[in-house]
Sequence to fold (209 residues):
Amino acid sequence: MSVLPFPAKREFDLACLGRLAVDFYSQQFGSPLEDNRTMAQYLGGSSANLAFGVARLGLKSAMVSRVGNEQMGRFLLQTLQREGCDTSQVQIDPQRLTALVLLGLKDRDTFPLLFMRENCADMAIDADTIDEGFIARCRALSITGTHLSTPGTRAASQKALAYAARHGVVRVLDIDYRPVLWGAERRHVGGQARRFGLHRDRRCHPGTD
Fold:
């Protein structure tokens, strides 16, 4: 089995580029979202969860994304910062709102969710502000598949991947496939969280390791 060549002596173990949202979980367990009355607020988005988890495990992580200039954006930044995750590369959008997700816990294997991501901040990440010098300070870069779904987010992801390749940073793809975010399902349907059995395959994206 081949071993990925992670560079040594870099300031950050992992930078995560992608979804950064607020998750509102229903507190009425076993009920559909329609019957929800109270919700708890958490950090959300696959990339943000990865950055948060890596920091909690004692490694140095960084988030590359975009939030709105409002209360939900500040909540996300503060949550990441408290865990020790670097947020210097999180852009602040003066107009768009931070993405939100409503989630239920119907049973052990069923958790309906409703994405509220129409023209949201993290899908407006600006490719021109991706910092090559910062990427060069990382051992690995993870991008989300969701950020390949629109021209703007794809440009930002490809630019970050190109910088990573130039500086020997290991490039990782988190498939994060949500049909509704690619326009393959109706938005108001929401959908269920999906599980995938994945293996390492560079055909997923030629710019990753």
Observations:
- The CA atoms of residues 66 and 125 lie 6 Å apart.
- The first strand starts at residue 14 and ends at 17.
- Residues 151-166 form the longest helix (16 residues).
